[in-house]
Structure formats: structure tokens, C-alpha cells
Amino acid sequence: MKELYLAAGCFWGGEKYLSLLDGVIETEVGFANGNTENPTYREVYTDTTGYAETIRVVFDPEVLPLEKLVRMYFRSIDPLSVNRQGEDEGTRYRTGVYYVDAEDLPALKAVFAEEEAKAGAPLAVELLPLKNFYPADESHQDYLEKNPGGYCHLPFALFEFASSEAGKKKRAYREIEDMLASLLEGETDPVVRMAETAAVVHERMGFFWTGFYRVRGDELLLGPFQGPVACIHIPFGKGVCGTAWKENRTIVVPDVEAFPGHIACSSRSRSEIVVPLREKGQVVAVLDIDSTETGTFDSTDALMLERLLRIV
Ligand code: SME
User: Which protein residues touch ligand 1 with a CB less than 6 Å away?
Assistant: First the structure.
């Protein structure tokens, strides 16, 4: 995973936009490259602290290369505007790319040169090493998720663009979340909840095999699931499923042949992801998904399936 700090005007809309992209694993809003210690939102708002509203982005470069992230960032700003984005004005709303890894500089410079040629004028976007960053308080984190009608300087069409251009996988999983939230409303039986989850994920994503194994004593027991006949018993610590249970973590297997101890229920399965379902931190089941192609699953599937299992 890599990290980059992006100042893009008001951080409420900027965070929403960036978090839609596949490969963006985590975002946090805060204040970067200023001159005081522990700045509050109020202090930064006075525009005397030197801080810029900034989004800390943790991303997976295998899914979202650095260059693509920065190009997408440029689509969300007016790169020629000095200390102003939309209606928001002040040095706190300046734009900037602040890096933590000096090795990223040549690639960043290349994207800046591209964007400057496109804009046909010198960019107002800073390109500097990160000096400091203080997270804003909780009420500002995921602000537009918490306040769907809240103020946003970015047009809705831009969020559509992000989802259709570089956020297709996240969008598909979010649609599944919405569908399941309404399907499962008021249903408390765990088998019903797992059965509907397996069915919706399987149908919407078109996987080869999608299902749960439940912890029963010292083994995993099959079901509910969608797809071909599968092994019924998996011992603790065995196969991908038993390992995910033992280590209490999500496991992405790009090529099943390269995973020692993989249990082949079907010879057609080529890649796999296993996500633990927890109750009070304890693994009570695992969600196992198989694909007939190698490399189907990545960190975005892991992130979104972990989110999904929180509502199951
Ligand atoms: N391959 C799994 C076993 C379950 S089947 O894929 C449905 C594993 O190694 O745990």
C-alpha cells in the first residue's frame, strides 16, 4: 500500500470523490503543510495557519497506479485557480499534491507536465513533500456519507464519472450493499442472512462459486452457498478457508496453484478470496468466493466484502 496527500479544495467533496475509486483503500481528511501545532477546524478557517484542507489517501498501486490516482485528482479540481475551488476561497482551499515518498517525485512531475500542457498555463497546484498532517475531528470524516444532502462544491456528475471511469468494482459492491440492506431488513435468522448474501453477490458479480462455511467445533461446515457441489468439511487451519479462520484475516489468492494446501473442491477454480465473518471479534463463518480465472480478486474486493459482511 502507498500513501499520498491531496489538497483539492473543500475536503468534504474531495474525500467522497477519491473514496469512490477502486484501489483507494482508506481516506482521512485533515490539515497539511501549515505552521501551527494541533490545528482545529476553527483555527484553519481563520486562514492564518498556513494549512490546506487535505485528504490522506491510502491506495493499492497494483489496482490504482500513482499516475492514474493523480490524473483522477486533476479531474476534480480547477488546476489554474489560486486559493479558490468552487465557492470556497482562502489559502486553506489551495490545491496541492504532498508526497511522503521522494521516489514518487519523477512520476508526479510527469503527470504535472501533462496536466500543464493540457491546461495551457502554469498550474496553481503545489507539488511538495508533506511537512505535517493533522486529522480533522470525526464529524468531518466521511462527511457526505453522514450528511448526504450536505454542502459540496463538486457536481454530482463528477461522482458518476469517478464510478464509471475508475470505480466500477466499488460501485457494483455498493449496489449489492443497498440491495441486501433492504432485502434483509427485519430478518434475524443467520442462515437466511447468509443465504441471501451469497445469492445476491453470486448473481450480481457472476462468480463461479459463492458461499459460506460455518464454524462447527474444530471444523468448517458447508453452507449456505451458490454454485457447484463443494467439499463439506474443512479442518481448522487447512486450505484457504481454514487458514483465513485460523489467522482471522481476509486472504486473496490470485492463483490457487500457488497457495500451499489449497483444497480443490472443483478443478475449474483458478482464484479465490476468503473473508471471515465475525461476531464480537470471533470468526463464526467465512465467505468463500471462487473464480474460473486467475487474478480475479484484489484489495478492492477484500475491502468491499469486509464492509458487506458487517451488515450480514
Ligand atoms: N478452496 C477452498 C475450499 C472451498 S471451495 O473453494 C468451495 C479452500 O482451499 O479452503
Answer: 209, 230-231, 234, 239-241, 262-263, 265, 269, 272, 288, 290
